[in-house]
Amino acid sequence: MSCARDPRCRGSARTTILLGVLVMILGVITLQQWGFSEPKRRLATRRREATVGVEELTAALQGFCEDHGRWPAHLYELITPPRVGAQSYMQGVHSLKDPACPSQANEYYYSLSGEEVIFGSLGSDARLGGKGYAEDILVKLSVP
């Protein structure tokens, strides 16, 4: 006897289809909760790390300027001790990579012109300008 004529089989096909639809709906909800939003969480975390890094750079640059009366020619002057036995302005920092950049291939932005310095993170797009996670975190300082 075929399943099409057996009344016991008719309900099981419908149940199987309903269960399949339910599993697909649950899968979509799961991806929306954890799968698709994960890149946004990572970008938000990188942005927070970049903000903290810019705050540390600000303090280090101000300390350097107070000691030397000028801005460093390059950010590496902040992590390289000026002489043997001296401490760097950013202790424990060995890299100036911008954490907001997804590839982390770019360093923090630093522009020195005369007695003014502009520095910070260029955001997730690693270019000047941008909105959202690509928005820049820049600080402008002048020699006091």
What is the ordering of alpha helices and beta strands?
Answer: HHHEEE
**Mean pLDDT, nearest integer?**
80
Instruction: Output the strand order for the largest sheet.
Output: 1-2-3
| Biggest sheet details | 3 strands, antiparallel
Rounded to an integer in angstroms, the radius of gyration calculated over CA atoms is 27 Å
Number of helices: 3
Describe this protein's structure.
- This protein is of the alpha+beta class.
- 44% of the residues lie in helices and 12% in strands.
- It has helices spanning 7-35, 38-68, 76-79; strands spanning 109-113, 116-121, 137-142.
- It has a 3-stranded antiparallel sheet, with helices on one face.
- β1 (109-113) and β2 (116-121) form a beta hairpin.
Ordered list of secondary-structure elements with their pairings:
Blueprint: H1 7-35, H2 38-68, H3 76-79, E1 109-113, E2 116-121, E3 137-142
Antiparallel strand pairs: 1-2, 2-3
Keywords:
3-stranded antiparallel beta sheet, alpha+beta, 3 helices, 144 residues
Question: What would a concise description of this structure say?
Answer:
With 144 residues, this protein is of the alpha+beta class.
